[in-house]
TrEMBL record:
Family matches, as SMART domains: EAL (SM00052), GGDEF (SM00267)
Residue span, EAL domain: 436-689
Protein name stated in the entry: Bifunctional diguanylate cyclase/phosphodiesterase
Cross-referenced PANTHER family: BIOFILM ARCHITECTURE MAINTENANCE PROTEIN MBAA, DIGUANYLATE CYCLASE DGCP
Keywords: Membrane, Transmembrane, Transmembrane helix
Residues forming coiled coils: none
Transmembrane annotation, as ranges: 18-40, 47-66, 86-109, 121-141, 161-183, 195-215, 221-239
Residues spanning the signal sequence: none
InterPro entries for this protein: Biofilm_reg_signaling (IPR052155), EAL_dom (IPR001633), EAL_sf (IPR035919), GGDEF_dom (IPR000160), Nucleotide_cyclase (IPR029787), Rev_trsase/Diguanyl_cyclase (IPR043128)
Domain GGDEF: 295-427
Pfam families xrefs: EAL, GGDEF
Length: 697
């Protein structure tokens, strides 16, 4: 359960406050340890080497240092160690030199085994030596000082002195560690101590409270010592299982990074602290008659560009290793105290609990992109990585986690769309309003509650009336507003990460219904609409391919409708996804044709089989000569390109007849059939699939 965000092994910059603090603590530890060992006599050393209890204690201290009691929500490197009991028992029984020496051996052994840096090992040795020395001074106040040749076994009257020594040990040890953490993560000492203070008090109370009993057992016989260790083993194993489950619930299994749940917790903590600090700053500002800038927190959303190409080319195992490498690079590119999380797929989030301003946030984002851009070599191949980063700041852009994430997602979408790499959230580029944000929250819950469903509308041949296909149309059965059409809610989702979930839901539902129809010998092609956000999702092709294979459907069973505007506004990204879909064999339809500005050259290059004429022209076809000319021109152009033309919005027989005379291939609209739910559409198909063709009028 190694924490990728733990960067305490990184050596501090020479001359920095943390470096100075570590040097001072180590120096004091050397002085304290040297003074203690200088007091050892020859008889003390003989007694020490000849007593098996000390050798057994040494083994247990090493084992206890290697297997800490893990703090919930933390890592195995941060918990209180069971060696505390044995080291404190050694202090009571034989004095400071023995306890400090055994603890130092354990810390060095554990540090080497875990690959800790020399500065961290030296600091830990000094930290324990100073804490044990402080406890020794507390015992000296009562005159209860032991040596290896003059062992001390406490009785009931000595418990107050032991309690004082244990309290001093805990306060000294916790303060020394918390000060280092505070300097490393650039937070206040109070915050560092407060993080798990209650838990540490409880754990140390139990660990230090067992030390006197350990002393009594050691004095009776060395054979009793292993018996006392058995309860430790039972507690440790139970705690390990519990902590491992908690760790799995809050961390990503592949990268070990925090997941969305833990990101929410840490973000809420950072925002709460920022609000509290802002309140104090405001009060100080009123007293000083000066305005102090608010404390900011930042949330980044980061998405890898063209990650799917790696999966497709080198396979998923290599893709997984690449994600692990990305996680490593990100965690070693942020500042101490920042948090990197994986939200799923190739999407990561970075929390900056404190950030000076927008420029500072951009600097961090640029550092992340620079770290990722270093060439990667896997399976004998070398390739480059790029990422798009969206930034949202508290309180500038949002007051809570959900809104921060949503607005970081909007910024990331803009960064990917503009290919700028990094974008800070801008209200001018966000179409969301408070009402739309409320709907976004409702829509997120609608996906989880399966309130989204598909309706189906037929596309019919104008030549013989035979069915050409069914278009799947998304509807939201809102618990309060009733049945909503896509225009009422999809524009809210298209700028957010939620669009990906909706599209995957639509694809899965459409494929499931198509498979059900094909099993009834109703072999109909079903068309699904794709948004611009969908075509920026490199996993769309993979989702469709896996869905077809799982249901035994050919690629021709599903058609994807893409709008002309998408290909004009986002040609670079869209063309890659469109090409991948075409290579898979998915038939493509160009929707809303006539509303964009497609050039003939681009239209000729698009791998589409069908052009759908926008309903705005079709509805006025029999009333406006200009619209009639436009529709006829489109029909002639499509026929020249060897494609099928489909007219949308046909609501009366007069319009259908005019389209037929123009040579339009197929039509869709209320004249042929309104959108129907799955059951109604199934009955409609049973009535119309096998009927005789209608004669052309």
């Amino acid at each position: 359960m190694k924490d990728p965000n733990n960067t305490r092994n990184t050596a501090p910059r020479r001359g920095s406050p943390l470096w100075i603090y570590i040097v001072v603590v180590i120096a004091l530890g050397v002085v304290a340890g040297g003074s203690a060992f200088a007091g050892l006599t020859g008889p003390d050393l003989d007694a020490l080497l000849g007593n098996p209890v000390f050798w057994i204690l040494g083994c247990f201290i090493v084992f206890g240092e290697m297997r800490p009691i893990i703090t919930p929500g933390s890592t195995e490197n941060n918990g209180a160690t069971t060696s505390t009991t044995f080291a404190f028992a050694a202090l009571l029984y034989a004095g400071l030199p023995v306890a400090a020496a055994l603890q130092a051996v354990a810390v060095v052994t554990c540090g080497i085994f875990r690959g800790r840096t020399p500065h961290r090992i030296a600091f830990n040795v000094a930290q324990y030596t100073l804490s044990l020395g402080a406890a020794q001074l507390a015992l000296a106040l009562t005159g209860d000082l032991a040596t290896p040749s003059a062992l001390w076994v406490p009785d009931g009257s000595d418990l107050p002195a032991i309690a004082l020594a244990g309290t001093v040990y805990f306060i000294c040890n916790d303060t020394l560690v918390s000060a280092a953490v505070a300097l490393h993560e650039r937070v206040s000492l109070l915050k560092a101590m407060r993080f798990d203070f209650g838990y540490q008090v409880l754990v140390h109370l139990a660990l230090l409270g067992l030390a006197p009993m350990m002393v009594v057992a050691m004095d009776r016989s060395a054979a009793f010592v292993p018996l006392i260790v058995l309860p430790f083993i039972a507690v440790y194993l139970n705690a390990s299982v519990s902590v491992r489950r908690e760790h799995q619930a809050l961390h990503d299994a592949l990268t070990g990074l925090p997941n969305r749940k833990l990101l929410i917790v840490r973000t809420e903590e950072a925002l709460a602290e920022a609000r509290g600090e802002d309140a104090h700053r405001h009060l100080r500002g009123r007293r000083r008659k000066t305005a102090e800038p608010p404390r900011r927190a930042g949330l980044f959303l980061l998405d890898l560009d063209r990650f799917k190409e790696v999966n497709d080319t080198l396979g998923h195992p290599t893709g997984d290793r690449l994600l692990q490498l990305v996680a490593h690079r990100l965690t070693h590119s942020v500042r101490p105290g920042d948090l990197v999380a994986r939200l799923g797929g190739d999407e990561f989030a970075v929390l900056l609990p404190t950030v000076r301003d927008e420029d500072a946030a951009r600097e961090v984002a640029a550092r992340l992109r620079a770290a990722l851009s270093e060439p990667v070599r896997l399976d004998g191949l070398s390739f480059d990585l790029e990422a798009s980063v969206g930034i949202a700041l508290f309180p500038d852009h949002a007051p809570d986690f959900e809104l921060l994430l949503q607005r970081a997602d909007v910024a990331m979408y803009n960064a990917k769309e503009s290919r700028a790499g990094v974008e800070v959230y801008s209200p001018q580029k966000d179409r969301n309003s408070p009402a739309r944000l409320t709907m976004l929250g409702d829509l997120r819950r609608a996906v989880d509650r399966s309130e989204l469903e598909l309706f189906y509308q037929p596309k019919v041949s104008l030549r013989d009336g035979q069915l050409v296909g069914m278009e799947a149309l998304l509807r939201w059965r809102h618990p309060e507003q009733g049945l909503l059409e896509p225009e009422a809610f999809l524009s809210v989702a298209e700028q957010t990460y939620l669009m990906r979930s909706i599209t995957h839901h639509v694809v899965e539902a459409a494929l499931a219904q198509t498979a059900a129809w094909w099993r009834e010998d109703l072999a109909v092609q079903v068309a699904v609409n794709a948004s611009g956000r969908d075509l920026l999702d490199t996993g769309l092709t993979e989702t469709i391919e896996e869905g077809l294979l799982a249901r035994g459907l050919p690629a021709a069973a599903l058609q994807l409708e893409i709008t002309e505007r998408i290909l004009m506004n986002e040609p670079a990204y869209a063309s890659d996804t469109v090409a991948a879909l075409a290579e898979l064999g998915i038939p493509l339809s160009l929707d809303d044709f006539g509303t964009g500005y497609s050039s003939l050259v681009r239209l000729k290059r698009l791998p589409v089989e069908e052009i759908k004429i926008d309903a705005s022209f079709v509805r006025r076809l029999t009333e406006s000569s200009d619209d009639a000319v436009i529709v006829r021109s489109i029909v002639d152009l499509v026929r020249t390109l060897g494609l099928r033309s489909v007219a949308e919005g046909v609501e009366d027989p007069k319009t259908a007849s005019a389209l037929r005379e123009m040579g339009c291939d197929a039509a869709q609209g209320w004249h042929f059939g309104r959108p129907m739910d799955a059951d109604t559409a199934t009955e409609w198909l049973r009535r119309h699939m096998n009927r005789a063709p209608e004669p052309a009028a």
